[in-house]
Amino acid sequence: MQLTDLLAPHASRLKAIPLAQLNSNDPARARDFALQANDLYLNFARQRWDREALEALFDIATARDVSAQLKDLFDGKEVNRTEKRAALHTALRSNISNAPAARESNQLANATFERMSEIVERLSRPDIHDVVSLGIGGSDLGPRFVVDAFGSQTPTRVHFVSNADAHAVDRCLAALDPAHTAVIVMSKSFGTQETLLNAGVARAWLGEYANDRIYAVTSRPEAAIEFGVAPAHVLPMWDWVGGRYSLWSAVGLPIALALGMSGFKSLLDGAAKTDALVYSAPLRENPAVWHALSVVWNTNALGLAGHVVVPYDERLRLLPAYLQQLVMESLGKSTRFDGQKIVDATSPVWWGSAGTDAQHSYFQCLHQGNATSNIELIGVVHPDHSHNDQHKVVLANLFAQSEALANGHAATDPHLAHAGDRPNTLILMSRLNPDSLGQLLALYEHSVFVQSVMWGINAFDQFGVELGKHLAAGLLRTWDDGAAAHDPVTRALMDEIGRD
Ligand code: F6P
Asked: Which of 37, 128, 261, 422 has a CA between 20 and 30 Å from the CA of residue 306?
C-alpha cells in the first residue's frame, strides 16, 4: 500500500486542527516530540502531526524494516543494489560494525588517513601559501562547506573551483602565485569533464611547478598518474563510498589542510557519535528516524513539495547547497529497487539560505504564500564571538519565526493575517565546531537513508545526471555542424550562436 493512502486518515483528521491548537491541547508535545542527539537538540512539536500519526509512521517504518536496513548499511551489505555495491561511508569514521566488510573498509580508511596526514604536513611547508581544490558535486560541496564554516585555522589558504565556466578558475588563479600554490584534483572517477578541464588550466598555469604541486584524490589512480600526478601524490577513494558521502574520506584533504588533521578527525569523531546513536537507538528514540519520518509525513501525508533549510548561523550558509546534493541526488527518484514505478511523491525540493538574511527575502512567501513548505530552522546556542546581545537577536528571530510560521496571526485586515500551519522543525546545536558539525551531517545522511527505505529507493546511485552529460558530449562532437544538432529547438539555438 502507498504511503499516501496509509497516512490519509491521519492527514485528514489533522488538517482540521490548527497547529497552534495541537500544541495548546497537548502541551507535553513540546518535550515529548523533542530528542537530544549528543550535542544536537531536535524539536518536532511544530510538525503538523500528533501522537497517533506518529505511531502510524513508526509502524510503517517497522513494517519496512528500517532497523534491519540500517544494520545492513553499517555492515557493508550491498545496499546500492543497482550498482551492486556497499555504501560504507560510516566505516570511514566508525568501527561500530564487526562485519568483515566494515572492518576492512575501516582499516583502509585509517591507512589512508596516515598518508593524508603526511601530505598535509608536506603541503604545510612555508613556500606553499595556497591550495586550490578542483572538484565538483560530492568532490567539492562537503569540503567547500566545512572550510567555509570554520575558515582557515592554519597558514594555508584553501580555495575551491568547481564550475566548468572558466571564469571561476581564472578568477581564482589570478589572485595566486604558481610559485606558492598547490592544486588537488578531486575526482572519484577522474573522468568528470568540469574537473578535468579546470585541472588542465591549473596544470598549464603551474608550468614548471606542476610535477611537484599537483595532488589527486581518486578511485582511478592510473588516470591521475596519466594526467601527470606523481604516484606518491595520489590518495585513494573506493567504490564503496558514494561521491556525496565522501567528505569523510581523503576528499576531506582540503578540510585537513584548513583545520589541521586534528580538525578533520574531530569532524569524523562527531559523525561517529551520531553513527553510534543511530545504530543502537530503537526507532522511537532514533533522531534520524524522527527526522526522516517528518519529511515523509510532510511529503506523503500533507503533500508539501518544498523543504526549506534556514541555518541561523552565518558559518552554516553553505549547508543548504551541501544538503541539496546529499538529499536530492540520493532521493530524487521515481523507481523502486524492484524496477516498479513509485506512485508516492518522493524527495521534496530542498533549498534555503542563512537566516536572518532569508527573512528579508523569501520568508514573505513562506508566511503568506499559498504554496506551503516544510521548514527546518537551525540555531547555535553558544556563539564563538563576544557580541552576546547580537547573538540574542539572532536566537530571538529564530524562535519568533518558528512561532509565527506555526501559529500565524489573526487580523481583521486580510492583508495582515498570517494563516500559520507552516510546519517546522527546530534543530539547536550547543556550539558549532567540527565535532558538532560532524554530528549534524551524519544525522542528515542517516535521515536520507531512512527516507530511502520508506520509499523503496536506492539512495546511492544517480543515473539521472547522465542523460544531460551524454547529450552535451554529442553536441560537442557535432559543434561545427549545427544542422546535426538533436531537435529543432537545439538547432535554433545553434543557429543563434552561429550568427554572433
Ligand atoms: O553529479 C554527478 C556526480 O557523479 C556526483 O555524484 C559526484 O559527486 C560528482 O559527479 C563528481 O564526480 P567525480 O568525483 O567522479 O568527479
From this structure: 37
- pLDDT, one tens digit per residue, over 441-494 is 999 999 999 999 999 999 999 999 999 999 988 888 888 776 566 789 988 888
Superfamily (CATH H level) for 112-259: Glucose-6-phosphate isomerase like protein; domain 1 (3.40.50.10490)
Check whether 339 has a pLDDT greater than 70: yes
Give the distance, in angstroms, between the CA of residue 23 and the centroid of all CA atoms in the same chain. 31
Of 162, 158, 157, the closest CA to residue 134 belongs to: 162
Read off the pLDDT of residues 252-261 as tens digits, 9 standing for 90 and up. 999 999 999 9
**Chain segment 47-80, per-residue pLDDT in tens:** 999 999 999 999 999 999 999 999 999 999 999 9
In whole angstroms, how large is the CA radius of gyration of the chain? 24
Q: Is 237 in the pocket of ligand 1 (CB under 6 A)?
A: no
Quick check: 54 and 43 in contact, CB under 8 A? no
Phi-psi region of 41 (alpha: psi -120 to 50; beta: other; left: phi over 0): beta
Take residue 445 and report the three cell numbers written for it.
Answer: 545522511
Q: Crossing angle for the helix pair 287-296 and 253-280, nearest 10 degrees? A: 90
Active-site position among 360, 385, 415, 470 = 360
Nine-digit cell string for 16: 482540521
| pLDDT value of residue 251 | 98
- The domain spans of the chain are 3-63+281-461, 112-259, 466-499
Q: Say whether 466 is catalytic.
A: no
Going by pLDDT thresholds of 50, 70 and 90, the confidence category of residue 499 is low
Q: Can you tell me the distance from the alpha carbon of 131 to that of 182, in angstroms, rounded to the nearest whole number?
A: 5
Give the largest CA-CA distance in the chain: 73
- Rounded to the nearest angstrom, the distance between the alpha carbon of 189 and the centre of ligand 1 is 7
- Catalytic site includes residue 469: yes
Q: What is the DSSP pairing of strand 40-43 with strand 424-431?
A: antiparallel
Burial class of residue 212 (count of CB atoms within 10 Å of its CB; 0-12, 13-18, 19+)? exposed
Question: Which residue is catalytic, options 77, 188, 329, 391?
Answer: 329
The CB of 465 under 6 Å from ligand 1? The reply is yes
The correct CATH number of 3-63+281-461 out of 3.40.50.10490, 3.40.50.450, 3.40.50.720, 1.25.40.390 is 3.40.50.10490
Q: How far apart are CA 223 and CA 188, in angstroms?
A: 11
Q: Is the dihedral of CA 470, 471, 474, 479 positive or negative?
A: negative
Using CB atoms within 10 Å of the CB of residue 154, give its burial: 0 to 12 exposed, 13 to 18 middle, 19+ buried.
Answer: middle
Q: What are the tens digits of pLDDT across the range 293-310?
A: 999 999 999 999 999 999
